[in-house]
Here is the input.
Amino acid sequence: MVLAVNGLGKQFDGKWVLEDVSITFEPGRIHGLVGHNGSGKSTLIKILAGYHDASAGEVTLDGRPINNAGPAAIRDLGIRFVHQDLGLISEFTAMENLGIGGVFSQQSGRSIDWKKQALRLQSVIDGFGSEVPLDVAVGKLSAVQRSLIAIARAVEVGDGGGSPARFLVLDEPTTALEGPEVEVLFGVIRALAESGIGVIYVSHNLRDVIELATSISVLRNGELVNTFFDRKASYESLLTAMLGEHLVSDETPNLDAFAVSRLQAQGGASSARLTVRGLRSSLLRGVDLDLYPGECVCVMGLSGSGREELIYALAGSTPSLSTSMTLNGAAIDALSPLTWHEQKIALVPGNRMPGSSVKEFTMRENLSLVSLDQLRLGFRQLDRKAETSMVERWASRLEILPADPEYGTRNLSGGNRQKVILAKWLQADPTTLFIDEPTAGVDVGAAHKLLTELRQIVGEGRTLLVTTSEVGDVLAVADRVLILHEGRVSQELVRGRDEFTESSLLLAMNQNIGEATTMTSSTGGTK
Amino acid sequence: MSSVAARVKGSLGVRKIGAIYVWIVLIAFFSLVNSTFYEYATFTQVLNQYAITGLVAMGLLLPLAAGLYDLSVGAVLGLSSMTAAWVLVNVTTNVFVAVLAGVAAALIVGVLNSVVLLVLRVDSFIGTLATSSIVTAAVVALSGDNVIAFEVFGDYGTWLGIHNIIGLTMPVGLLLIAILVIAYLLERTGYGRRLYAIGYEEEVARLSGIRVDRMRAGSLLASSALAGLAGTLAAAAVGAGDPTVGPEYLLPAFAAVFLGATQFRNGRFNPWGAAVAVLLLGTGNVGLILIGAPTWTPNIFSGALLILAVALTHGGRGGKRALKKQISEGSADAGAAEPAKVG
Ligand SMILES: Nc1ncnc2c1ncn2[C@@H]1O[C@H](COP(=O)(O)OP(=O)(O)OP(=O)(O)O)[C@@H](O)[C@H]1O
Ligand SMILES: [Mg+2]
Here is the structure.
């Protein structure tokens, strides 16, 4: 049972975004798919899924063309997908969710056989060696548990005919998962591969891909550069294949020396830009924060720790309460997105959050949305020329592709959309930025660029509060790290004072995992 | 990136300006069937008659751009026509005062709509349907369901319905001004950009510091005001305030705005498209009457056009394909992954 694409091509508006790509995916193997932003990964997957028709070439299963089969038929053939957003409905339980993407067990009267249903899902989840409650609304579960449910649903057989799962396609499944959680997921993926399922794994995290995949295909500008077989790919070889001549410089700014002097200068709380005491929300149980000008604070924590909610609660976009708050020394009630123009505090939501970008707008319209007042001519008229050149400036600075201000945001690839969102807020010139997962979905080269950009604006005296699940990002930009656990800050690591390495950060988080109530098992276990 | 040639070709495509092609076909068809159709008088008749619909449509653009339905414009139109007529008969024959009174009455409904939708948080479709019903009933109650007739050839009727320049009456001039003002607002200012952002993605607008409710209230007041103005003109056209006149403008105005959205701007509500759609609607309806079609045919024409327009905006652009695209975009890459956030 072999899934293959042969000479696959896809054209959008006369432009080839995928050209002559041939890859063979084998059962029981984990096949990585990597490439820079806009290289065509998602397009390839959407063709596999039957959402897009190929403009050239074909998709075959055991030599039989299946590219005109349509999404339902492709599911029946045993090719299953876990998309980036998982496609779960938060208010539904795991079992109810199974009925949406999967197939319900039906009794003769076409009513749902919940018992049978529970057994089926339970048996799949049991196979993962993890415990996931099936009768709780999915929204209340941790991120790993939700990922596992989505995977379970995808590989679930369904008893209304159709074939068992043969291939499983995972698009950036580790987004928003912290180190220890990623390991749980990897265990499950490996076990699935061992049971004979072919896994296609899309990710920008090259180290993850190298750790997991036996073969790795690299796309660049829609073309297949190379497929590395038998674990022959190294980080450097992948990077070169992905970015071509365009290599990322490995030098990271030396933040350590700087950190010590800044620590000494900081001194009393009087110089703090923003102080918060006792911040509470649905996940936070009293967080204290002091943020200073010219520093970048990163927030880490397992899912459910409050990490994912902190900046939204702080900025007042999610209901929250605090005992006291000061901004530039003056007491304030609360922050709100409405007052950001006066307070110059920007909330930059994650790429996939509602509220990040308007899909129907062009790149230009999204990018300038908070800077419209900078573009005012007489009679409140917008200066379209200045607007366009502003967007072009950012497009070249952050290498947004295609660099066309009139390009529809809807059609931008995930990573390029993320760059537009960041550019939008950077252009607005805030003094303080709360940023959620700045590099999620962004390729290695672009991530380096973004992080350098962030470090530069910190150097200009701005304050950054960044929530992230990427240890690499933290090492590249953070002056301080706060580890959240069960709604409180459990540990603070300061660069220049504490050990500040990948292992020390992971250790700090791992100290929590043993006691974490949401996760009962951290090993995937192979059968 | 598409070349210049491709862009020009794209902007003349059926998908972008299909209504203009349909309009030309209609003109050709009516001209062939009835030799009296292809005349300047027909042109002015279409404009003079449909300027009122056009004004209502221009007003509707603003709340629709901001993501709100305003179904009360028909009732508002009836209310303001009655108010203007009542002022003319009972208070003063001053044209301005009567028009202002009509618009002021309309604005009261605008305020009511804002309270219902933005304070009480009722869904706009249901909310304005309800206020529409209340306003219609109130007008009937206050007037005893009678029309208020006034002297058609008095100042009011003459100024607003009869005086003309090259055959075009006051409503056409007002419509022209409205189109230009609304086009400027929506397409040339930050105000318009923010309004569209609210309509497309409220959360983006909110996080961008846009005062969502305030802007929405403004759009509701504006649409009421324009519907009110249209009502005073409708009264002038027939020399009477008529409580039941509203609904006859509601459907065509919506049809025009939705059909207009399929023109020029890739599905975005816009004044140019709405203006062309009003012309198309007017030409069709006037033409049908001229060739002696039964009087119920114009309603069928408007209804069919509305369905066509909405089908083109939502289902359109390739039907099933577009749907597939939506699904894949919604899930594969761009989907909204919400971390367990409890409101
Ligand atoms: N529906 C579409 N219409 C037009 N162009 C599109 C469409 N979908 C994708 N594209 C373009 O095709 C190219 C490939 O996009 P794709 O989403 O496959 O990239 P990707 O490899 O998934 O990138 P990322 O890592 O940023 O998610 C991009 O230039 C993108 O702008
Ligand atoms: Mg992608």
Q: What stands out?
A: The beta strands of chain B are 148-149, 164-165, 168-169, 240-241. Confidence is low (pLDDT under 50) at residues 315-343 of chain B.
